[in-house]
TrEMBL record:
Extent of the signal sequence: 1-16
Name used for this protein in its record: Uncharacterized protein LOC106170252 isoform X2
Keyword terms, alphabetized: Disulfide bond, Signal
Gene name for this UniProt entry: LOC106170252
InterPro entries associated with the record: Thyroglobulin_1, Thyroglobulin_1_sf
Domain of life: Eukaryota
Domain named Thyroglobulin type-1: residues: 95-161
Provenance organism: Lingula anatina (Brachiopod)
One Pfam family recorded for the sequence: Thyroglobulin_1
Length: 190
């Protein structure tokens, strides 16, 4: 019980830290090689206690181990990359579901321009058909493109992708024969 109270106090203290407006006045920052950071797949973010100095954050890939906690207000040196989040259950970077990605795009004016208009199911899965630019394609529930099912947007009105998705799920379970007969739009022939 004492450990729980101690952890709760530490968390409260970390959240209570507020940087005064002139906190960065006396900060001496080491020069960050931004190009080297970006070249190794990192991202430059404000770091340190009050975000006074830029740091190179390692962008983690899907499946990489991650930690969600901020220690006393100090930001982490690594974070899950674009379209990923840190799962509290597995403590690994996992893909965000469709609704989470859609909220990211809608909440950020910079990414809204040219961002895909995602179609999501109520449970957070990606709808079978997704369009980007002038193309529409069949995708898995996690949003991964299913090969061989892409058409021009003006041809996609009746694109359902049910057959393509069923074929994909069958192949993921080890089925390697071809019991599905899908057209180029991922629909069942017939």
């Amino acid at each position: 019980m004492k450990i729980f109270v101690l952890l709760a106090c530490c968390a409260a203290a970390a959240n209570a830290l507020v940087c005064p407006p002139d906190a960065c006045k006396g900060a001496t920052c080491t020069l960050l090689d931004e190009q080297a950071c970006l070249a190794k797949g990192g991202a430059v973010r404000p770091g340190g206690m009050c975000g006074c100095c830029d740091v190179c954050i390692t962008l983690l890939k899907e499946g990489d181990k991650c930690i969600q906690l901020l220690l006393l207000g100090v930001p982490a040196t690594a974070e899950c990359g674009e379209g990923l989040k840190c799962s509290p259950e597995s403590q690994t970077c996992v893909k965000k579901n469709c609704l989470e990605r859609k909220a990211d795009f809608e909440g950020n004016l910079l990414t809204r321009v040219g961002a895909p208009k995602l179609n999501c199911e109520d449970n957070g899965d990606y709808s079978p058909k997704q369009c980007l630019g002038s193309k529409c394609m069949c995708v898995t529930k996690k949003g991964d493109r299913i090969s061989n099912y892409m058409v021009n947007i003006w041809e996609a009105l009746d694109m359902g992708c049910e057959c393509a998705r069923a074929e994909y799920e069958y192949s993921q379970k080890g089925g390697n024969d071809k019991p599905f007969n899908c057209d180029s739009k991922g629909n069942y022939f017939g």
